[in-house]
Amino acid sequence: MQNRTKVIATYDKYDFAGSIEYMFSTIFSIYGASYHIAPFTRFKSTDYDFSKVLVVSYGKRFLNTEFRNQIHIYASELFSKNYLKPDSMPETPLKKYGEIPVIYCGRGNFDGFIRESENLIETNIDIIASFFFMLSRYEEIVLDKKDKFNRFSATESLAYKEGFLDRPIVNEYIELLWEWIDSFNLGFKRRKLWGDKDFAVCLTHDVDSIRKYRIYPPLRTIGGSILGHRDLRKAFAITIDYLRAKSGRDPYDNFDYIMDLEDKHRFKSSFYFMAGGNTKHDTGYSIDDLYVNSLIRTLQERNFEVGLHSSFDSYNNFRLLNFEKEELERVMEGYVLGGRQHYLRWKTPDTWRILEKVGLKYDTTLSFADREGFRCGICFPYKPFDVVENRILDIWELPLTLMDGSLFDYQNLTPEEGFQRIKSLIDTTKKYNGVFVLLWHNSSLDDLKLPGWIQVYERTIEYLGGQNIFNDTARGIIDWWEKGEHVYRAK
Fold first, then answer.
1. DSSP assignment, residue 70?
2. CB-based contacts of 97: which residues, under 8 Å, 6+ apart?
3. CA distance 469 to 212
4. Which residues have CB under 8 Å from 329's CB, separation 6+?
C-alpha cells in the first residue's frame, strides 16, 4: 500500500538541512497538508504514486526524476559559505514580482521569476530563504545595530527601508505558493485556522505602573507647566488630578474599566505584570503589595490571563528572568505560560533561548518599538529557529502587531492618525486570516496625559467587536494554534 502523503519536499543543500526542513514544515503545517520531507539523495521514488503527489523541490540545480507534478524553487546564496556574514544580506533595492518584494532571488537560468510548463512550475523567488530571513530575525544577528536601549530598531530593518513593514510579507509568500499548489488541481484543501472566524484578535496590557502618583504631589510637573510653558490651565488640571487620585482612584488604576469594556464586547485579554527589576525604567510597584495580589486574583477570577512582563535588564539575563517568573508564580499560585519583555528589549536569538530555558510556552514581544507593523513578516504564531545553534526553539512566538506608544510617543501621531494606522493593520491581518496582537498599557488610558487616546482604544475595541473574530487571551490563542499544528507530517 502506497504512502498517502500529498506533498513531498526535497532539497539538495544538505549542509543547511535543519534550516530548510524547518521552513518546509512551517509552511505545510500552516496549509494543513499531509507532507513528507527528505533530502534528494534519500528520496525513494517507489514509495509514491506521482500522479497524486506534488513535489516541491529546492536547490541551485533543477531536481527532477519522474515527478509528474512539481514546483521547483531555485536557491539563492543565503545558505552558502557567507552564511551569517554581511555578504549574505539581500541585495537592495529589492526586485519585485508584481507588487511583492523578493528578498532573495534564486539562480535559475531563465529570465524573470516564473517559468511554467506542463505539470512544472519553476521559480526564482527563493521563498525558503526569504521566509527564513524574516522568521529567524536573521538581519538582527548579522547587522547587530542597536539604539540607545540596545534594541534593533525598525529604521534599521530591511522591511522598513524597502517599505513593507506594514505588510506581512511571509503571509504574502504563503499565498503565492498556495496559488501554485492549487493550480495542479490535486484536491488539496487548506485547513480553517480559526474555525468559522475570519481572523484572530489578541488584546494585551503591559502593567508598567499601578499608580500615577506616589506620596508627594507632582510639584516638578506643575512647576514646569507654569514656568516652562506658562500653562496655568494645565498646572491646575494636574493639581486637581492629583487631589482626585488621593481621595479616590489613581488614573492608572483603571483595571475595572478595562475589564468591563472588554467584557462588554466579549473580549478576554492578557495582563503582563512585573515581578522585579531595579533600574529607573522598571516598575514602581511590588508584586507582594496586597492590592496587586488582589488585582491579580480578580483578573484570574474573571478569566483574564496573567503573565510576565520581564524587567528592563532581563532580556539577556537568565537568572534574573527566571527569578521574576518564579516570583510571579508564587503570587499567582500557578504557572506563568508567557509574557513580554519590558521596553520590547530583545537580543536575537539569545532572548528566545532564555525564555525557552525558563520554561515559558510563548513570547509576544516581537514588534518594533519605534514603528508598528510586522517585524517577523508574519501574522501567525510560529516556532522560531536559532540560527547560531541550528535548531528549532521550543517556544512559540506570537508576533506583536502594534504597541500604543509607537503611535503617540515615537511618531507623535494624533489620535485620529493613530486610529487609522490601527484600523489599517487590523484590515491587513484580516486579509491573511492572521492574529492581530495589540499592546495597550493601562497607563496610556490617562486622558490628562494623553488626550484623546482613551477614545482611540474604545474605538478600536468597537471596530474589532464588529468583526467575525476569534478572540482569546494570548495563552488561548497559542493553545488553539498548537492543536492544529504538527499533526500533518507523515511518518
1. E
2. 113, 114, 125, 176
3. 34
4. 335, 336
**Cβ pair 196, 150 in contact under 8 A:** no
In contact, 342 and 284? CB cutoff 8 Å: no
Q: Is 320 helix (H, G, I), strand (E, B) or coil?
A: helix
Tens digits of residue pLDDT in 332-348: 999 999 999 999 999 99
The answer to whether residue 96 scores a pLDDT higher than 60 is yes
Q: How far apart are alpha carbons 110 and 121 in whole angstroms?
A: 12
Q: Is 76 helix (H, G, I), strand (E, B) or coil?
A: coil
Q: What is the pLDDT of residue 463?
A: 98
* Whole-number Å distance between alpha carbons of 71 and 6: 13
Strands 385-386 and 391-392: what pairing?
antiparallel
| Contact criterion met (CB below 8 Å) for 344 and 354 | no
260-290, pLDDT tens digit by residue? 999 999 999 999 999 987 788 877 799 999 9
Q: What angle do the packed helices 127-135 and 169-182 form, to 10 degrees?
A: 150
Q: What percent of the chain has pLDDT over 90?
A: 77
Cell of 409: 510617543
Q: E strand or H helix at 11, and its extent?
A: strand 7-11
Rounded to the nearest 5 degrees, what angle is found at the Cα of 135, between the Cα atoms of 109 and 168?
Answer: 85
Instruction: State the average pLDDT over residues 403-409.
Output: 97
Tell me the CA end-to-end span of the chain in Å, nearest whole number. 14
CA distance 169 to 103: 10
What would the grid cell of residue 482 be?
Answer: 498548537
> What's the pLDDT score for residue 49?
74
The residue among 292, 285, 320, 291 whose CA lies nearest residue 306 is 292
What burial class does residue 472 get, using C-beta atoms within 10 Å of its C-beta: 0-12 exposed, 13-18 middle, 19+ buried? buried
The pair phi, psi for residue 219, each rounded to 5°, is -65, -35
3-state helix, strand, coil in the chain (%, to 5): 40, 15, 45
Question: Class of the 199-212+250-484 domain?
Answer: alpha beta
* Structural domain boundaries in the chain: 7-182, 199-212+250-484
CA 330 to centroid of chain Cα atoms = 28
For the stretch 211-249, pLDDT in tens is 876 655 454 444 444 445 554 555 445 555 445 554 557
d(CA 203, CA 258): 11
- pTM, two decimals, is 0.91
Mean pLDDT over 362-379 rounds to 98
